[in-house]
Amino acid sequence: MAAFKALKADNDWIQARVNYANILHRQDRHREAEKIYHQAADYFDASGNRLALARCYYNRANVLLQLFDIAAAERLYRDSEKIYAEAGCTLDANDARYGLAWLWMLTGKFHQALLQLAACEKIYRDGGDHRGEALCALDRAEVYLGLGLNHDAFDISALAEKRFAVLGLQYERSKASLFRAQAALRIGRKTEAEKAVVQALK
Protein backbone atom coordinates (compact mmCIF):
# COMPACT_ATOMS: atom_id res chain seq x y z
CA MET A 1 0.00 0.00 0.00
CA ALA A 2 2.86 2.38 0.79
CA ALA A 3 4.25 1.86 -2.72
CA PHE A 4 0.95 2.84 -4.33
CA LYS A 5 0.72 5.96 -2.17
CA ALA A 6 4.29 6.98 -2.99
CA LEU A 7 3.50 6.70 -6.70
CA LYS A 8 0.28 8.66 -6.18
CA ALA A 9 -1.67 5.83 -7.78
CA ASP A 10 -4.73 6.83 -5.81
CA ASN A 11 -7.21 4.33 -7.22
CA ASP A 12 -4.85 1.39 -6.75
CA TRP A 13 -3.97 2.57 -3.26
CA ILE A 14 -7.62 2.88 -2.26
CA GLN A 15 -8.39 -0.56 -3.69
CA ALA A 16 -5.48 -2.02 -1.74
CA ARG A 17 -6.92 -0.40 1.38
CA VAL A 18 -10.30 -1.99 0.64
CA ASN A 19 -8.63 -5.38 0.31
CA TYR A 20 -6.95 -4.78 3.67
CA ALA A 21 -10.32 -3.87 5.18
CA ASN A 22 -11.72 -7.16 3.88
CA ILE A 23 -9.01 -8.96 5.86
CA LEU A 24 -9.77 -6.90 8.96
CA HIS A 25 -13.45 -7.79 8.62
CA ARG A 26 -12.63 -11.51 8.51
CA GLN A 27 -10.52 -11.00 11.64
CA ASP A 28 -13.52 -9.41 13.41
CA ARG A 29 -11.73 -6.05 13.54
CA HIS A 30 -14.94 -4.42 12.43
CA ARG A 31 -14.39 -0.84 13.54
CA GLU A 32 -11.07 -0.61 11.72
CA ALA A 33 -12.59 -2.12 8.60
CA GLU A 34 -15.59 0.22 8.73
CA LYS A 35 -13.35 3.28 8.86
CA ILE A 36 -11.46 2.18 5.75
CA TYR A 37 -14.64 1.27 3.85
CA HIS A 38 -16.06 4.69 4.73
CA GLN A 39 -12.97 6.49 3.45
CA ALA A 40 -12.95 4.40 0.29
CA ALA A 41 -16.63 5.11 -0.33
CA ASP A 42 -15.96 8.84 -0.12
CA TYR A 43 -13.16 8.48 -2.67
CA PHE A 44 -15.18 6.38 -5.11
CA ASP A 45 -18.16 8.72 -4.76
CA ALA A 46 -15.99 11.73 -5.59
CA SER A 47 -14.33 9.94 -8.52
CA GLY A 48 -17.63 8.72 -9.97
CA ASN A 49 -16.86 5.00 -9.67
CA ARG A 50 -20.40 3.92 -8.86
CA LEU A 51 -19.84 0.17 -8.80
CA ALA A 52 -16.88 0.44 -6.45
CA LEU A 53 -19.01 2.76 -4.31
CA ALA A 54 -21.79 0.17 -4.21
CA ARG A 55 -19.34 -2.50 -3.10
CA CYS A 56 -18.05 -0.25 -0.31
CA TYR A 57 -21.60 0.47 0.80
CA TYR A 58 -22.30 -3.27 0.88
CA ASN A 59 -19.11 -4.02 2.81
CA ARG A 60 -19.80 -1.21 5.28
CA ALA A 61 -23.32 -2.53 5.81
CA ASN A 62 -21.97 -5.99 6.62
CA VAL A 63 -19.55 -4.52 9.16
CA LEU A 64 -22.10 -2.18 10.71
CA LEU A 65 -24.48 -5.10 11.13
CA GLN A 66 -21.78 -6.82 13.20
CA LEU A 67 -21.50 -3.61 15.24
CA PHE A 68 -25.29 -3.52 15.72
CA ASP A 69 -25.69 -0.20 13.94
CA ILE A 70 -28.88 -1.49 12.37
CA ALA A 71 -30.25 1.73 10.90
CA ALA A 72 -27.01 2.61 9.12
CA ALA A 73 -26.58 -0.95 7.84
CA GLU A 74 -30.10 -1.00 6.43
CA ARG A 75 -29.59 2.34 4.68
CA LEU A 76 -26.32 1.19 3.11
CA TYR A 77 -27.75 -2.13 1.93
CA ARG A 78 -30.52 -0.18 0.21
CA ASP A 79 -28.07 2.31 -1.32
CA SER A 80 -25.88 -0.52 -2.58
CA GLU A 81 -28.85 -2.40 -4.04
CA LYS A 82 -30.06 0.74 -5.84
CA ILE A 83 -26.72 1.42 -7.51
CA TYR A 84 -26.25 -2.19 -8.58
CA ALA A 85 -29.80 -2.45 -9.89
CA GLU A 86 -29.42 0.73 -11.93
CA ALA A 87 -26.20 -0.68 -13.41
CA GLY A 88 -27.88 -3.97 -14.32
CA CYS A 89 -25.77 -5.98 -11.87
CA THR A 90 -28.56 -8.34 -10.88
CA LEU A 91 -26.69 -10.75 -8.64
CA ASP A 92 -24.75 -8.02 -6.85
CA ALA A 93 -28.02 -6.19 -6.20
CA ASN A 94 -29.43 -9.44 -4.89
CA ASP A 95 -26.51 -9.81 -2.48
CA ALA A 96 -27.57 -6.48 -0.96
CA ARG A 97 -31.17 -7.68 -0.74
CA TYR A 98 -29.94 -10.84 0.94
CA GLY A 99 -28.09 -8.66 3.44
CA LEU A 100 -31.36 -6.90 4.20
CA ALA A 101 -33.04 -10.25 4.74
CA TRP A 102 -30.37 -11.17 7.27
CA LEU A 103 -30.79 -7.83 9.01
CA TRP A 104 -34.53 -8.42 9.29
CA MET A 105 -33.94 -11.93 10.62
CA LEU A 106 -31.69 -10.55 13.34
CA THR A 107 -34.15 -7.82 14.29
CA GLY A 108 -37.19 -10.09 14.49
CA LYS A 109 -38.89 -8.93 11.30
CA PHE A 110 -39.49 -12.52 10.29
CA HIS A 111 -42.31 -11.99 7.80
CA GLN A 112 -40.26 -9.44 5.86
CA ALA A 113 -37.22 -11.68 6.04
CA LEU A 114 -39.09 -14.70 4.67
CA LEU A 115 -40.54 -12.73 1.76
CA GLN A 116 -37.12 -11.29 0.96
CA LEU A 117 -35.38 -14.66 1.20
CA ALA A 118 -37.91 -16.26 -1.14
CA ALA A 119 -37.41 -13.46 -3.67
CA CYS A 120 -33.61 -13.64 -3.36
CA GLU A 121 -33.68 -17.41 -3.74
CA LYS A 122 -35.48 -17.12 -7.09
CA ILE A 123 -33.08 -14.46 -8.38
CA TYR A 124 -30.06 -16.55 -7.39
CA ARG A 125 -31.60 -19.60 -9.06
CA ASP A 126 -32.40 -17.69 -12.26
CA GLY A 127 -28.90 -16.19 -12.25
CA GLY A 128 -27.17 -19.53 -11.80
CA ASP A 129 -25.86 -18.78 -8.30
CA HIS A 130 -26.74 -22.10 -6.72
CA ARG A 131 -24.81 -21.45 -3.52
CA GLY A 132 -26.83 -18.28 -2.93
CA GLU A 133 -30.01 -20.18 -3.73
CA ALA A 134 -29.16 -22.87 -1.17
CA LEU A 135 -28.20 -20.32 1.49
CA CYS A 136 -31.59 -18.65 1.16
CA ALA A 137 -33.30 -22.00 1.69
CA LEU A 138 -31.12 -22.66 4.74
CA ASP A 139 -31.99 -19.28 6.23
CA ARG A 140 -35.68 -19.83 5.59
CA ALA A 141 -35.42 -23.09 7.51
CA GLU A 142 -33.87 -21.24 10.44
CA VAL A 143 -36.66 -18.67 10.45
CA TYR A 144 -39.31 -21.39 10.27
CA LEU A 145 -37.73 -23.11 13.28
CA GLY A 146 -37.76 -19.84 15.19
CA LEU A 147 -41.44 -19.38 14.40
CA GLY A 148 -42.32 -22.96 15.34
CA LEU A 149 -43.31 -23.82 11.75
CA ASN A 150 -41.66 -27.18 12.11
CA HIS A 151 -43.09 -29.02 9.11
CA ASP A 152 -42.02 -26.16 6.84
CA ALA A 153 -38.61 -26.12 8.53
CA PHE A 154 -38.23 -29.85 7.96
CA ASP A 155 -39.08 -29.63 4.26
CA ILE A 156 -36.92 -26.62 3.43
CA SER A 157 -33.92 -27.81 5.46
CA ALA A 158 -34.04 -31.13 3.61
CA LEU A 159 -34.06 -29.20 0.33
CA ALA A 160 -31.12 -27.06 1.43
CA GLU A 161 -29.27 -30.18 2.54
CA LYS A 162 -29.62 -31.73 -0.92
CA ARG A 163 -28.50 -28.55 -2.64
CA PHE A 164 -25.37 -28.24 -0.52
CA ALA A 165 -24.58 -31.92 -1.10
CA VAL A 166 -24.61 -31.32 -4.85
CA LEU A 167 -22.36 -28.28 -4.40
CA GLY A 168 -19.97 -30.19 -2.15
CA LEU A 169 -20.33 -27.68 0.70
CA GLN A 170 -20.07 -29.89 3.76
CA TYR A 171 -20.26 -27.26 6.51
CA GLU A 172 -23.48 -25.80 5.13
CA ARG A 173 -24.86 -29.29 4.48
CA SER A 174 -24.20 -30.24 8.11
CA LYS A 175 -25.98 -27.12 9.32
CA ALA A 176 -28.99 -27.99 7.17
CA SER A 177 -28.92 -31.53 8.56
CA LEU A 178 -29.01 -30.19 12.12
CA PHE A 179 -31.97 -27.98 11.27
CA ARG A 180 -33.71 -31.02 9.78
CA ALA A 181 -32.97 -33.01 12.93
CA GLN A 182 -34.37 -30.28 15.14
CA ALA A 183 -37.53 -30.01 13.06
CA ALA A 184 -37.93 -33.79 12.92
CA LEU A 185 -37.79 -34.06 16.71
CA ARG A 186 -40.44 -31.40 17.08
CA ILE A 187 -42.85 -33.19 14.76
CA GLY A 188 -42.27 -36.58 16.36
CA ARG A 189 -40.05 -38.14 13.70
CA LYS A 190 -37.35 -39.45 16.01
CA THR A 191 -35.77 -41.91 13.56
CA GLU A 192 -35.51 -39.20 10.92
CA ALA A 193 -33.92 -36.89 13.48
CA GLU A 194 -31.31 -39.50 14.40
CA LYS A 195 -30.43 -40.04 10.73
CA ALA A 196 -30.08 -36.30 10.23
CA VAL A 197 -27.72 -35.99 13.20
CA VAL A 198 -25.57 -38.82 11.82
CA GLN A 199 -25.45 -37.02 8.48
CA ALA A 200 -24.48 -33.76 10.16
CA LEU A 201 -21.55 -35.41 11.92
CA LYS A 202 -20.07 -36.96 8.77
Q: What is the fold's blueprint, element by element?
A:
Layout: H1 2-6, H2 10-26, H3 30-47, H4 50-66, H5 70-86, H6 90-106, H7 110-127, H8 130-147, H9 150-167, H10 170-186, H11 190-200
Helix pairs in contact: 2-3, 3-4, 4-5, 4-6, 5-6, 6-7, 6-8, 7-8, 8-9, 8-10, 9-10, 10-11
Structure overview:
The structure is a single chain. This protein is elongated. The protein is built from eleven helices and no strands. Mean pLDDT is about 95; it is low at about 1-10. Helices cover about 85% and strands about 0% of the residues.
Question: How many strand segments?
Answer: 0
What structural class do the secondary elements suggest? mainly alpha
Provide the CATH topology of the largest domain.
Answer: Serine Threonine Protein Phosphatase 5, Tetratricopeptide repeat
Task: Please give the share of residues in helix.
Answer: over 70%
Written as H for each helix and E for each strand, in order along the chain, the element string is: HHHHHHHHHHH
CATH class of the largest domain: Mainly Alpha
Low-confidence stretches: 1-8
Shape: elongated
Task: Compute the number of helices.
Answer: 11
Q: Evaluate the radius of gyration.
A: 19 Å
The major sheet is characterized as: none
What is the end-to-end distance? Answer: 43 Å
CATH architecture heading of the largest domain? Alpha Horseshoe
The share of residues in extended strands comes to under 5%
Mean pLDDT value: 94
How many domain regions?
2
For CATH, the homologous superfamily of the largest domain is named as Tetratricopeptide repeat domain
